[in-house]
Amino acid sequence: MVVVEYAGLKINLDDEGYLVNQDDWNEKVACAMAEREEVEELTEERMKIIKFLREYYKQYNHFPVLSGVCRNVHREKECMQHSFMDPLKAWKIAGLPKPSEQVIGYLHGEGGVV
Description:
By secondary structure, this protein is mainly alpha-helical. The protein has one domain (2-107). The protein contains six helices and two strands; from the N terminus they run ββαααααα. The protein has helices spanning 27-36, 44-60, 66-72, 79-84, 87-93, 101-107, and strands at 2-6, 9-13. α1 (27-36) crosses α5. The longest helix is centred in the middle third of the chain and has 17 residues, at 44-60. The relative contact order is 0.15.
């Protein structure tokens, strides 16, 4: 386990950088994780995406189809790629658990099935 200190917070991450306890997530935690993932700034658009990912996961317990994310935050179809380059970074910043290998394959364009 890795402990990251940011703005007076101690954040517990697993060895791959995923938040250990999803309930520890808040916007400060998101900022710390974004910094760790080398995302320059959590803009309002990026935060909308991150919050949508959290809400979707809470309701359905899995990763949404990428174009659906964009549609639900009222952005263009490719918003995930334009905002983060790697949707897995957005997932980590959202404080969600590591997705399955199938989902990771899908996110990396390897045709994984979700």
